[in-house]
Structures are given as structure tokens and as C-alpha cells.
Amino acid sequence: SKTDNLVLRIVRMNNYPLILEQQQTSKLHILNEPFVSATPNFVVKKRTISMVISEDKSLQNVSKRNEYGEMQIAGEILACSDENDRRTRKIFDQVLFAVRFISTYVTFYKAEIPGGYWKELVTGLPKKYSVSIKRWPGENDELSGLDLADPEGRMAVLTALTKIRRFLLK
């Protein structure tokens, strides 16, 4: 949406060396076969690092029944991480960020994915390694998240995006 684009441009997620791509399809491979495809609305890339940005204009599309879209976010994060490994032809520990916009509400996610997770996934479901995904703010319902319509929420979103940008530019 125009709001998402404006917010991302304000914090300069689309300026070199970062690249802002729209509707970039990524695939999650299990046993070396594509298993899940994900097409987040935006992906911010810097060489081997990517950040997923997903948006849904309507609160009607999220509910407790679909876990407020969090399985979709997890799939997009994993597929994006898998693409990072495949693009670089190296398996490495990754920290990925995701941002979800639902109506005016924004939620942030930070995923830590050990390289060993991908090595195990080649032979089946991982037994030793796991993925950690943290959500901020911590609540999970249709009205949780930072509200862009609220000045304090808007400031918190811009501050968080600026911090993520700094991390990506390290």
C-alpha cells in the first residue's frame, strides 16, 4: 500500500546498498526439493542478508483460526533464508527480520537461523537445530502491533525500522 511504501522510503530501505524488491518469490527446500513457495510483498536485500515485509490491508483476513497470519510470516522468513543460502552457495548462520503491516498495525519479527538447520534439512526435518523467531510487540491478536495511526506507535515503528536498517548496513 502507499502507507507501507512511504514508511519504507522514509527510513531509506530502498537506497543503495539496500535493494527493495516487490513480489519476490522464494522457495523453501526440504530434502533438496522445493516444498513451499512464499511471495512476500517486499524483500529488502543487501548481498547475503534479506528482510521480509508482508502486508495485508484488511483486519478481516487475520483471525485466531489462521493464527493471525504468523504461519505465513514464518514460511516467508524460512523461504527467504533458504534463498540467501542458495544465492550465496554457502550455508551460514542468519539473522533475518520481518515486518508485518495489517491495516495500520505493525509487528516486527527477528529470526535466528543456525547454518546447521539447513544442513539437517537436506536429509529431512531437523532434529538438533531449530529456528528462533521473536515477535515485537509480544501480543498476538488482530489488534496487536504498533499502530501507525497513533503518534507514539508511528515513532516506535520508524525507530525500529531505522535500527533494523543500521543492522543491515553493518
Automatic annotation (TrEMBL):
It comes from Dentiscutata erythropus. This is 19261_t:CDS:1.
